[in-house]
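agent> step 3/5: call structure_predict on target 'EDD domain protein, DegV family' (Piscibacillus halophilus).
agent> reason: downstream docking stage needs a structural representation; sequence fetched in step 2, passing through unchanged.
tool.input:
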Amino acid sequence: MKTVVVTDSTAYIPEERLKEMKIHVVPLSVNFGQETYRELYDITTKEFYDKVRTSDELPKTSQPSIGEVLNKYEELSNEYDAIISIHLSSGISGTYQAAVSAGQSVDGVRVYPYDSEISCMAQGFYVLRAAEMAQQGVAPEDIVKELDEMKENMRAYFMVDDLSHLARGGRLSGAQAMVGSLLQVKPLLHFEDKKIVPFEKIRTSKKAFKRMEQLLNESASQSEKVKACIIHAEREEIAQKWKEELEEKYPNVEFVLSYFGPVIGTHLGEGGIGLCWYKVS
Ligand code: MYR
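tool.output (status=ok):
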C-alpha cells in the first residue's frame, strides 16, 4: 500500500521539508480586489505583508475549489493507493469540505480527509508525522489513529495586535458581544470545537507571553518530550528571542520557528504571535 500526504498551504511547512517528505500542497489564495495570489506559488509572505501596508484595499481569502483538489488527487492516483489529506479547521474554512467532496469523486485512490481542527504549524505537526509514517509503510487507518491521538495532546494559543481583522473576516466566534471590550485588551485566543474563541482577557502583550509560557510549562512538566512551535506575523526577532529563552528553560521541549503566511495573516493582521505544542507519547 503506497500512501501519500496532501495538505494545504496554511500549514506553512518549509519547502525543503515538503520535498524531503514528499508532501503535496493545495494552495489557498489571497485576493486584493480582482488580483488573486496563490500562497506558496504567487506571493511570498514578505511580499504579502508589504502589499498590505501599501494597498488601499484590505485582502480577502479563498479556499481551493473542489476541482483544484480533485486535480491534485487525480495526479496522485497514478502513483499511490491512498491519500491522507490534512487541512485547516473546518470551523474557519471550507477547504476540508472541498477535500471530502473531491475524495468522493476521484477514482483509483482512497482518500482519507483529515480535519486538523487548527491551522499553521500545529497542522504542520500532523502533516509531518503522517508523512513520516507513510514513508515507513504504515497503513493509512493507523496513521489516522495516530493523528487522533496527537489531537488529544495538541495545544495552541495566540494573540493579535489588532482584533478587528479577525472580527472583519468573521472568524472570531463566541465573542461578538465582547468584541468592543476585547479591542481594548490583548485577548489570548485558541480553538474550541474547531472555531477561534477568546481564551482569556489579558491586558498587555507581556502578560500574554507569560501566560502562554505558563500553559506550556503545565504540559512540559508532565511529559518527557514535547514538540513546540513559535509562530509569528513579521515579528521574527521577537519570536527568535522568545524561542531562545524558552529553549534554555525547557530542555525537554524541541522548538521550531514558523510564521503566519498570507492567508492566515489576512485574518490575524501583522504582529500576531502564537505558541503551539504537543506531548510526544
Ligand atoms: C478561507 O478563506 O477559507 C481561509 C480562512 C482562514 C481563516 C484563518 C483564521 C485565523 C486562524 C489562526 C490560526 C492560528 C493557529 C495557531
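agent> step 4/5: record observation. The chain has a mean pLDDT of 94.
agent> proceeding.
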